[in-house]
Every structure is written in C-alpha cells, then in structure tokens.
C-alpha cells in the first residue's frame, strides 16, 4: 500500500514553505516517525516525519522548491517491510561500496546532488570532508576548500633537485600566489532563507513604524552573583534545573512591568492595548537566525520553571524544533547580547511590543562606593522603547526599577 506524505497545514499568516533538506533519497528505506524532510517557512523550520515505515517510492519536489499546504511531498511504499536485518544489510552494502572506491554513498552524511557530482568529478570521498552545513551536511564550498587546501599542500611539498632549488622556489611562490589571489576574490551569492527574509522584513518594519528611543543604565551584579553562588547547588538538587542569570532578569522585569503597564502594552490602530498578563519573549540564537520564543504567563512561574523553559527553548532553537505557537505573541522581550561579548547595544523592538530589554556582558570595573574605589562586576542595561506610548520618564524609571531589584534581590520577594 502506498502512503502519501503531504505538506502539513500552515497557519493563516503563512502561504507556503520551501523544501530545504531531504533526509532520505528515493528508493531508501525509512521507519515510522523518522525525519523525512525539512520545510522552511518565514517563521520556523518544520520537520515532516514519515507516518509509516517502508521504502520511499517517489519524491515529488527537489530541495529549493516552493510548496503549499496539502501538496504531496513523497510516497512511501509500506508493503516493503523494514526490518532490523534490512538496516544492517543496507549498512554493510554502504561500507562495501565505499571500500570499492565509490563516492556516491556515504553512511548518514547528507550531500546535495550538485555536491555529489563535484566530488565524483574530483575523485573525492566524503569521509575525507567535514561538512559545515546543517547536521554535518557537505556543501559545495566545503569541497572547494578541500580541493584548494589539497592543491596548496601538493605545491608546498614538491621535492626538487638541489641544483634547481632557486628555480623551484620561484615556481612554488608563483603557484602559491596564484592560488592566494583566487582565494582572496571568491564571491558567493546565495538566496536569503525564508526565515532571514522575514527577520529583515520585521526589523525594517520596526524601524519605520515606531518612534524608537533607547535609555541606558548600569547594574552591580555582585549581589545576584553571590546569591547564585550560595544557592545554585541546592537549587539544582531541588528543582533539577541550573540557576542562571536570566530568571533574575525575568523576575525583575515582571516587577517593573507591573509598576509601569505602558511598557507591557502595544498599539493596535488608534488604540493602546494594556495586557493583563506577562508573556516574556527571550531572544535566542538558532541555526537560521535570531528567534524569540515566549515564556507565557511568566508571572505564575517560579525561577526554576522560568530557567527550565528557557533551556528547553534554546535546545529547540538549536535543533529547529520550535513550533509557531512557541514564537508567536509576547508582551515584552529580553535579549542577552552579553553571551556573545557585547558591551553595549541598542536592541530593536519586536513588533507590536512597546519595549525590549538588552542585557550585556559582565565586566569588572573600578566603581566608587561610599567614597572608596572598589572593583565590582558591572553590566550595562539598555531599554529600547516606543516613545508613542512610553514616556521618557516611565522608561528611565522602569530601567531603574530593574537595576534596584537586581542590586537587592530580596526586593523581588517582598515586591517593593
């Protein structure tokens, strides 16, 4: 019996998707729930699994094709049973084929048809190349770099007669210079991914449709660092989650948002919508760009639940497993550029939200405390806000509130 694998239903805001990666080829066996193909929308990458075990009878779309909901992606013939013995036999055939010098089949490494053709033309085995693409996928530039390095190595290792050392050196320099000149002027043009194009569109929209200003402050992180160092082992033992800095910032932001509701609001046409809940977006870096999963009803969570939610989202972002629901909505966003070493930045709004908090790296600096110079771990904070609904006074006091909460964490427990 033949089973059709179709493009899943897409949300109303998404018209189509792009086929970005086939995990299996036509004629290969696949098991139920095993990943078959990745589809990229302008928000997330959807992994389409096999709904039945069998052999892939036909694939209808190449990588790069645009598909819509309900279209048939592939057909699986489930009349061909997939047993453990078949898997073992297939693996043995792969090894045997590779031993004979074939470059077309390479265990589990994904290779595009164009890359496979290029490898075949140059007699290169895929086991010799470390892929830089998704899931170790071997890209054409990986192959080109391997060829360039191989040629350079050959030129440098050529042995010449002693009486021709000078001529050999001249020839070697000429060869290396030619390779270097070509390498310095390499250009590569690739189309924007749907996700990157969507990010660009939203960032441009935010700049054009909001009156964005940024206010700055600095916070002494020593009280939070001391509290974390004192309780992190007991915290992890009790809750099974590590105590990081992000939960402190989420909790401090919640207290500040309750005091200044305009920062948790958004503009809808000519109306201001004040949200009676706190859905905190946490910007994380995924394989295809920045995404902002949302910790919903954060005010109802304890610090362990907040930490675990953020860790789960970070893992999903890394593996392209975030659902549309998980990155939709949000009333306020926190972005931590400090993990990449940023000292100071002006974060951009995540529409239709009215504000975003930017965290930065912690640096020890000389500070004056009670008339004495002491060394403290300091962090710059930045709050970008939409001046159409948030006044400068509110923005400054909002950021001061966060600073005060972090410099005296007990205030978060007392709500003062």
Report on this model:
- With 416 residues, the chain is of the alpha+beta class.
- It has 3 domains: 2-77, RNA polymerase II/Efflux pump adaptor protein, barrel-sandwich hybrid domain (OB fold (Dihydrolipoamide Acetyltransferase, E2P)); 84-155 and 170-184, Dihydrolipoamide Transferase, CATH 4.10.320; 196-414, Chloramphenicol Acetyltransferase (2-Layer Sandwich), CATH 3.30.559.10.
- 36% of the residues lie in helices and 24% in strands.
- The chain has helices spanning 84-99, 113-122, 140-157, 165-184, 194-209, 222-239, 246-259, 303-318, 392-407, 410-414; strands at 2-6, 17-22, 29-30, 35-40, 45-49, 54-59, 66-67, 72-77, 212-220, 265-268, 271-274, 280-286, 289-291, 294-295, 332-336, 355-359, 363-369, 372-386.
- The strands form 4 sheets. Strands 9, 12, 13, 14, 15, 16, 17 and 18 form an 8-stranded mixed sheet that branches.
- β12 and β13 (289-291) form a beta hairpin.
- α3 packs antiparallel against α4 (165-184), α7 crosses α8 and α7 (246-259) packs across α9 (392-407).
